[in-house]
Amino acid sequence: MDLQVALLLGQDGLTNGAIYALLALALVLVFAVTRVVFIPQGEFVAFGALTLASFQADKTPGTLWLLLAAGGLVSLFEVGAALRRRKLGLVAPTLLWNLAYPALAAAIAVLGHPVAWPLAFQVLLSLALVVPLGPMVYRLAFQPLAEASVLVLLIVAVAVHLVLVGLGLLIFGAEGSRTPPFSEASFEIGSIAVNGQTVWVLVASLVLVGSLFVFFDRTLRGKALRATALNRTGARLMGISTVKAGKQAFMLAALIGAFSGVLIAPITTIYYDSGFLIGLKGFVGAIVGGLTSYPIAAAGAVLVGLLESYSSFWASAFKEVIVFTLIIPVLLWRSLKSQDIDEHQ
Amino acid sequence: MMRRHLGFIAFVGLLGVCPLVLPEFYVTLLNYIGLSALVTLGVVLLTGVGGLTSFGQAAFVGLGAYSTAFLTTATDLPLWVAPFAGSPWIALLAGLLLTGVVALVLGFLTLRLSGHYLPLGTIAWGISLYFLFGNLDFLGGFTGISGIPVLSVVGIELRSGRAFYYLIWIVVLVAVRVIQNLLDSREGRAIRALQGGTLMAEAMGVDTARAKMIVFVLAAFLACVSGWLYAHLQRFINPTPFGLQVGIEYLFMAVIGGAAHVWGAVVGAAAFTILKQWLQDWLPSLLGSSGSYEVIVLGVLLVVMLQRAREGLWPVLARLVPDTKQPITFEVTEVSPRNPILALGTELLDCRNVRKEFGGLVANDDMSLLVGAGEIVALIGPNGAGKSTMFNVVSGVWPLTSGEVRFRGERVDGMGARQIARRGMSRSFQHVRLLPCMSVLENVAIGAHGRGRAGVLAACLHTERREEREILSFAAAQIERVGLGEFMVAPAGSLPLGQQRILEIARALCANPSLLLLDEPAAGLRYLEKQALGELLRRLREEGIGILLVEHDMDFVMGLVDRCVVMEFGQKIAEGLPAEVQANPAVLAAYLGGAL
Amino acid sequence: MKLRIVAAMLVAATFVSVARADVNVGVTLSATGPAASLGIPEKNTVALMPTIIAGQKINYVVLDDASDTTTAVKNARKLVSENKVDVIVGSTTSPNSLAMIDVAAEAETPMISMAASSAIVDPVDARRRWVFKTPQNDVQMSTAIVEHMTNNGIKNVAFIGFADAYGEGWFREFSKVAELRKLKIVASERFNRTDTSVTGQVLKILSSNPDAVLVAGAGTPAALPQTTLKERGYKGRVYQTHGVANNDFLRVGGNSVEGTFLPAGPVLVAAQLPESNPVKKSALEYVNKYETAYGKGSTSTFGAHAWDAGLLLQNAIPVALKKGQPGSKEFRSALRDALEGLKNVTVSHGVVNMSAVDHLGFDQRARVMVKIENGAWKLQ
C-alpha cells in the first residue's frame, strides 16, 4: 500500500465515516431524550435517498402514501384520545400536522411535476416527505411506551425497523437507485483526485454538526431537549413536555437520517434495505461513545468508516467481521472502566 | 395430583399422536416449531427471567450446527480435532464445548455492563459470525455443507421428518422440564432475583455476575442443541438460518409467547411459525406483488403486543389449562441458625472515621459508629445528610474513600456487598425491592441463598430436594416469625406496602444475620402496622440481633431504640440515648428544631 | 394448423380430465430476499406457462422461499406432502437447491433447479438421480469468459464478487478454468450487496495492475464496483457475469458499464441471433411472451430458466403420462426417466441432451458473449 492508496482509502473512510457520525449523533440524541435505541435510524437514510431517486425518475415516491397513511393513523389516535379526555379543542394543531400537511405535500409532489425542478428543491421536497415520519413513528410506536424499560423499547425499535424495511420493499421495490451528484466537479489535491460529492458530504456533515451544536447550546428548544435528556422527571416539573421532546428528537433523527441518505445516494446504489447496515455502523460509533457522549460517538463513527475502508482493502471478505468485532474491545474497555454495579434498570 | 398433570399429559399425548395422523408438511412445521422453541426457551430464560436480552441466539444455533456438520463430514482433519470427528454425538459434545467457551468470553465482555449493551453486542456478534461462517472455506462458505449424516438413536435411523419429530420434541420437553426445575430452586431464585436489581440480589448474597453468566451459557447451550438437531434434520447447512434476522425472530417468539414463562417459549414458537407461514401464503396475493411483507404485519403485531399485552399469549392460555406448576412443599421447622447467638453487648459493627467522596463531593466525613448485639441504633438526620450513603458504604455497595469498617472484629471495607452479606449482615431497602410476581415464600427464600450449596446441575435435575426443603422450611419459619404466615403462597406484589416492608425484614432474617440494616422500615406504614413492626424489632433485639436503622419517624424511633446517631452534612453531630439527643442543642438546631 | 392442434387438445382435455387426476407442478423460488432480482422474473414466467400439456391439466403451486434455505426445504416438503406435486421446480439459488435435494430424493419426486452451481446435478448419484437443472453451470460461463480473455491477449485478471454463494461459486469455477488456461488471477476481492463503498477493494485491484477485471454479482449491486473502477480511472476491460443480465443493471450502471463483456444465455440477445441458430426461435418466443405480459425490455435471462424448466416438462410429461397416473409414484418415476431421456430439446437458453450422467444437457450453444454498447446488449 503506497501513500496514494492510503490517502484514497482515508478519503473514502472519512466520507462514509462522516455519514456514520451523523447517524451516531442522531442515535445518541434519541437515546438520551427517549431511552430508545433507535435501530430504524438507517431506514430513514434509505427512504430519503429513494424518495429523491423517485422524483428524478419522474415517479410518485411511495413515501407519500406512507406519510398520508401514518398521518391519518396518528390523527385517528389523537382524536380518539381527545374524545376520551373530552378536550377536542386541542387536536387542531395535531390535525394540521398529520392531515393537512401531508395532503399539501402530496399535492405538491403529484401536481408540481418535481422532475423538472432544480436538484436543491427536489432534495427539500424529499426531506419534507420523509422527516415528518419521524415524529409519527414516535407517536405510534414509542409514545405509549414512554415509561417502559430500555429493553422493551429496544425490542419495539427492532420491530419498527422490520416494519419499515417491509414497507420500504412494498413502496420502492427490490431494485436499487442512484441519484446524480450535487456537483460533478473534481479536484486534485496533491496526487489524489477528490470528487465534488465527497466534499459535499464532508462539508454538509460539518455544517449539520455545527448547527446541531448551536441548536443545543443556544436555543431554548435545544436546551429543553438537553434538560429532558438529563432528567425526565425534572424536565417535566419544569414544564417541558417529554412527549414533545420525544417527537422533536425523532424529527431531528429523521432529518439527519434522510439528509444523510440524500448525501450518499450519488456515491452508491441505495436499496430499500441498505439502511440497516449503515445505521448499525453509526451504532458501533455511538457505542464507542457509550451512547452518551456526542463528540466521542462522532469520533468513533469516523473510526468505523476508516476501519471499514482499510479493511475492505486488506481483507474484503472479512470486512463486516472486522467492523463489528471492533465493538468487542470497546465493550471490554467499558466493562473494565465501569466499577460500580449499574443500578439503572 | 392427577388433575394437576392432566393438561401436561394431554399435551404430550397430543404431541405423540401428531406425526401419526398429520400430513408430512405439518410434521415438518412442528419440527421447526420444536427447534425454535428450544432456542426461544433460552431467550425466555435470558429475557423474561433474567432481564437480559440477546439478538444473537441464532449465531449459537449456528455454532451447534456447524460443529456437527464440520466434524461429521470433514476429511483430512488436523490431528487435534480428529478424535472428535465421525460421530454426531461426539460432535454434539464438541459443539457444546465450543459454545460454552464462546458464551463465557462474550458474557465476560458484556454481562457486567448495563442492560442495552448486551443486546447491542449480540447484534454485532450475530452479524460477525454470519460472515465468518460464510467466508471460511472449510465450513463450505456461503454455499454451505451438504451430506451431513443421518442421526441414529439406539440403532434407529432418523431418516424421515416423522422419525426425527420424536427426538426433537423429547428434547424440547426435557429442556422445558429441566429449566422449570432450575427456576424452582435456590439457583433459579438467584436468577429470578436479577430482575429485582443487582443491588438487592447482591445484598442477599447472590453472585449476580455468576447468575447472569449461568443464564447466558444455558441459553447458548439450548441454542447449540437446536442447531445440532437442525443440521441432522436438514442434512445441509449454510449461513442463512444463523443470521441476525433469525436471531431477532427468536426474540419475537419469546415476546409473543410470553417472555416470563417457560411454556411461553413453546407457545411463542408455534404462534410465530404458524402465523408467518400463513402470512407468507396469503399476503402476496392480497397485496398483489411478492415481497417479505409478513414482517410488516409481524412487526406491527409485536409493537401492539408490547403496548397492550406485554405478558404475551401464555398467561391467557394458562388460564384455560390446569396449573402444571408443582405446589411448594415445606414445613415450618426450627433450623439451627448458622451464626451463633452472640452475648448481649458483643461488638458487631465498628465504623471508624469513614469518609466517602463522589467526585469532589463529600457524602460522609469522619463517621464513626458502633452497634452491639442486642442493641437497636438509629441513624437519623435531615434529608441529604448522608444516611443512605453510610448504609451503602457499610453494606459494601460502594467502596469507601478512607476509614475502616469492622464487622464482628473483621475488616470488611473493601469487600463487596455479597461477601459482607455472607458474614451475617443483612439489609432492607428504602424502596421495597421484592419480586411482585413471586410468592412470599420464594421471595423470602432468596434471603437464604447463602444457606445452600447445591449447584446448577443438581438444581436442573432436582437432586437437591433435601436442601431445598430445608431452605423453604427455614424461609417459612422466618415468615411465621414476622407474622406473615397466612400469606405464605400469595404473590408478594399483592401485599400492601406495610407488609411488603415487613416481608423485606423476613427476607433479611433468612440470611440468619447477626446485624440487620433497615432503611426506613416504618415509611408508609399505618399506626397499627408501626406498632407491630416495633414489637418485631424488640423481639429480634431480645434474640440478640443488632439492628441499625435509618428512620424519619421520630415517635417510632424514640420509643424503640437504645441509641441515636445524628448526622448532618455527612458528619456525626450527636450521639447518645434518645432523650439526650432530643435535648442536644446542635441537633435541635440542625434537624429537630422545628419538629419538636 | 396450430388452431387445429389446440382444438384437438381441448377436446382431448375434456375427455381425459374426467379420467385422470391433474398434474401438479410445485414451484419454490426466491421472489424476495437477496436473490429477489432473480426470483421475480422466474415467478412472472411461471404465470406464462401452459396450463394444459398433452391434454392434461397442469396445476402450478408457487411458493416463495425468501432466499432462505430453511424456508426452501419447508416449501419443498409442503409441496411434496400437502400439494402432492409430481415435480418440483426450484429453487432460485444454489444453497436453496442443494438443501432441497434430500427432500426430492426422499419423496422420489423429480426436481428441476433454476440455480447455477454444478454441484446440484453433479455427480448424478442416488440422491441426484431425481435432480435436474436448466441454467448453465458456472463452469460453462467461466470457460466462455476465460476463452474470451485469452483470445484478446489478457494475461492477468482481478476478481471481485459478492460475499455470498453466487460470488463464491463463480470464484471457485473461474479460478479453476483460469488456472488451466494459464490466466493469472492477481486479486480476489469480495463485496456485499448493500455496501455503500467498494473503494478499498477497487484500489487493491488497481494496485495489482490487471489487464481485466471480472465482477461476479447479480443484479444492480454489480454496477457499484464498475462505477468505482471507472471513477478511479481504470482503463482495462471489465467482465460481468450473466447475473447482471437485466435492464435495471443498465439503468443503474449508466455510462460506467459501457463496453462491458459478459457471457449469457442466447435468450438475452434473441433478436440478434443469426437465423441459423437453432435457439433463436425458441428464445424469441419466450421474449415475446414475456414482454407482451410485462412490458418491453422487461425480459431477463433468469425468467428464461424457469421457462426452460417448463419446456422440459412439456416434453417429458406426455411421455410419462403413458406410464402412470399423475399423483402416483409410477408417474413421478416415469417423469424422471422421461426427463433423463430428453434429446435435442430446444429451449430458450440452448439445446438440451440429457443422459444418465448429465442432468443439465447443455453444450456450446447455450452461451454467447455479449457486450454492452450504447446502453444495450450487443451480441459479439
Describe this structure in words.
The complex is a heterotrimer of chains A (345), B (596) and C (380). Chain A is mainly α. Chain A has helices at residues 3-34, 41-56, 63-85, 92-111, 119-130, 133-142, 150-172, 196-218, 220-230, 232-237, 242-264, 275-288, 294-314, 319-325, 327-337; strands spanning 186-189, 192-195. Chain A has one domain (3-337). Chain A is 73% helix and 2% strand. Chain A has a two-stranded antiparallel ribbon with strand order 1-2. In chain A, strand 1 and strand 2 (192-195) form a beta hairpin. The longest helix of chain A has 32 residues, at 3-34. In chain A, 51% of the residues are buried. In chain B, a hairpin with a 2-residue loop joins strand 8 and strand 9. A 6-stranded mixed sheet of chain B has the order 10-11-12-7-13-14, with helices on both faces. In chain B, strands 6-5-8-9 form a 4-stranded antiparallel sheet, with helices on one face. The longest helix of chain B has 27 residues, at 208-234. With 596 residues, chain B is α/β, with parallel strands linked by helices. Chain C has 380 residues and is of the alpha/beta class. Chain C folds into 2 domains: 2-136 and 283-363, Rossmann fold (3-Layer(aba) Sandwich); 138-264, Response regulator (Rossmann fold, 3-Layer(aba) Sandwich). Chain C contains 12 helices and 15 strands. The two termini of chain C are 37 Å apart. The interface between A and B is large, with 49 and 51 residues.
